[in-house]
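Worked example (supplementary).
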Amino acid sequence: MEPLFDFVRALGLKVRTLLRPDRSWHELDEEMRFHIDMEAERLRAEGMPPRDARRQAMIRFGGMERQKQRTREARGTALVEDAMQDLKYGIRMILKNPVFSAVAIATLALGIGANTAIYTVVEAVLLEPLPFEEPDELTLLWTHNEEQNQTKYMVSPLDFDDWRTQNNTFEAMAAYWPSTATLTEVGGDPTRVRQVFTTEDYFDVLGTSPIRGRTFTPDEGPGSNPVAILSEGFWERRFGADPDIIGRVLTLDGSPVEVVGVISAQQTFPVNTDIWTQMTWPMQIQSRYARWMSAIGRVADDSEFEAARADMVSLASRIEAEHPDTNRGWTVTMSTLHDELVGDTRTALIVLLSATGLVLLIACANVANLLLSRSEVRSREIAVRVAFGAGRARLVRQLLTESLVLAGAGALLGIALGQISLRGLLAMAPVTLPRENAITMDGTVLGVVLVASLLTGLLFGLAPIARLLKSDVHTTIRDGARSTSGVGGHRLQNSFVVAQLAMALMLVVGAGLLVQSFSNLRSVDTGFQATDVLTFELDLNTSVAETDDDVILFYDQLRQRLAELPGVNAVGDASTLPLGESLDYSQPISLLDRETPAEVETRATIRPVSPGFFAAMRTPVVAGRVFDDTYRRPDDGQPGVLVVNEAFVRSLYAREDPLNDRVGQLGLRFGPLGAIHMSEGEIIGVVADLKYEGLRSDPIPAVYVSGLQSSIRRRTLTVRADDDASALLPAVRREVAGINPSVALTNVQTMETVLADAQSRDRFSTLLLTLFGIVALLLASVGVYGVLAYAVEQRRSEVGIRMALGAAASDVRAMVLTDGAKIVIVGLVLGLVGALALSGVLASQLYGVSPREPIIYATVAGILLLVGLVASFVPAWRATRVNPVVAMKRE
Amino acid sequence: MTSTRTDLLQGTLELLILKTLQIGEPMHGWGVAMRIQQLSSEVLQVNQGSLYPALHRLEHKGWIRSEWGTSENNRRAKFYRLTALGRRQLAEEREQWELFSAAVGEILSAT
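After joint prediction of all chains, the assembly is encoded as:
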């Protein structure tokens, strides 16, 4: 028992030593003094003269300070004690200079906060592995046809079946088809849901584990009882996360399906899926020509991605040789699931992360400069401490601790700032930001941010330390009062400011390029007027409209009813909405009344639109006329009529008049999607080009067919209002329900929203980079101001003497301004060089502006020059207010 | 200082401190040094620089404990005494020392 007690007491002693280091230090001092006194007394007793005895005792003891230090180290608590002492000292220094510290911490927090927010996104989107089993093996497969200019095209069921059974490099392969369905429930509004049809092994290929229930089993192929799996998001949204969901029977497009499982939000693929069901048709009954399925595969463990690609390409050419009619020119392309999900966000995110990195470096330089300026003020204090025997190593440690305390405070504030701005960032982010539900500030992110902050602390802490190590104690103490700053010090500070300016210029050039690009995008002619147009999507399943005629009739009737509503200006519908989710049919056509040179490909996108569509969109009619209600189905005895776009006239008609010419090879049936009911038609009009695939896309030849001559089941209605488009919605709903209450409206949005969404990614990058540019500009101007103001302060006496000797205020001002201008100009030149070198990174983000656009560079350089001079002006003005007498008295 | 006085190895000093404190009253640092010198008939000279590091190390290990008291000349001094844990440690170290010195002795007396 007693030994344990001794052990505990020893522990208590350690804790006491750590908690009250001063007291234990004093006790040690007293103990040693006692020893020396006793020794001296003994020597005296042996007959030594008192003064010699004392000296001898001290010599024998061997330097009290040294012994105290050694004793302390022997206790095993010294390292912790020192660190705590440094920490205390650091915090005290920070509290002693609240303005300095606040500026430094705020600057750091700004830099760290921006980086935290952006890095969180980068980590989740780019770095974190996908939440599937062995996600690197997952690969998406498409068909590809160079001749027909089809990249990443769908695959036909028959081709897919060959892929799946004849490849040598895949562990497994599954097909899926994103579609929509209407969910009806007793007593509830019908809901449109995003339904994905899959092959039975789809979830096994992905490697998903359901959070509830199970996934499909192999025997649940076509013909068995229909079962469905819900996504977590849909389960929560629609069923309030009902724990008893498994086994519930839903009515999907009029037929019952039983829920067997729920898949977590992270594992929901394709993103935004509401419900998965099995494909209800066998692969073999489809044509090779009908390419409409998507494919995903898992590359076998022992195969490389490239080997798998080669395998698939050779398989495709085998199929091509066997079925030349349907497969001529069709091969395979692949990309990993990760690349596909992340897409071109990668470049944008890397640009943003580099931008925040620059901001942090600029912030770092600012704090380093602040510390340098202060270290000059403190250089005398430090020299005195060196003279009194403080080890340089210890001083370095102390200064570093101070920097780290600053960095730590900056990091804490920065992380809080980052957390807040992350929320804003996500709210502002384009809807298409991939993997958005994975974006959270987790341990990894915090770890990275903390390490980055520590490095930051080291980085800016090193500058004053380098100065300290070079400093000469004697000169410093002697000259301290006169506070002349060494030339070297200024050079260091100046080069920091030069670097800051250069980095700020690079950032602002990037921001300028994006702003120009964005304004180009905004002024792109979309071919429509977005204001006051309400759009919504309908999809008619066979329980609503059984035949093609029913479909045509339904939409015709709806259009008439909506047009009669008060406040409605024009109504139309279209199978694809400009800038909306594209469902395009690009196909070969034949020009019946015109010879085209062999090298011109006669292909066009066929787009069914109803009468009134161009009026509702206010798309200019360039020549001829557009559809009206008199053009009905050809088999009603009416001729097929077509409207083409200007791109069609440009590329296929060499800008000649196409009116009254006939176009053939139009008739098409898109499986369950609907059909175009004519094989040829006459061109009755030409309309302006509409942008379909994003604002950056170039218009491709398009042939519009009348919605009354096609029976596409899924269409987007476009309703132009006299003024407020959204106000029409209740009335519109009533009219739809008036025709058939089981039809659900989806994607209800105004055309302005559609346009804004199309601009959102560019707006996002532009806004952020501009923000970072402004921050960089501010920080850099603070840097310029700080250094010049400090230099003026240092040269106060010199200025005083000059003025006493008769220098005019303007001379003094010019002197300071020249100093400032030198720094600014060097910074600008370096920045311009850097920006020229790096701007290539932005190329893919820009629209209609070269990454080396000289006007932008010149403008930005001008702005920075101005900011630099303004920042120099205040110190210059202050310099002229120096009172010579006061300044010289200070010496 | 004569050559007959030998400086102590670190571990040995700790053993001697423990032993010295076992013999008698609580002692202050200077007293411990004097006693070691005296008991070894002035052969062993305690390096005064090593004394306090050793004392504090022992105290932090819980083998000795200290108390502030009044010295023979009426001054405040820190007195050390052996703990139960230290007593056990002393026995162990003593045994090892004897093993060690016997072994060395045997080698040296080998002919």
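Two points are worth noting when inspecting this output. The CA atoms of residues 800 and 806 of chain A lie 10 Å apart. Chain A touches chain B at residues 2-3, 5-7, 9-11, 13-14, 17, 27-28, 30-32, 34-35, 37-39, 41-42, 60-62, 66-67, 70-77 (CB under 8 Å).
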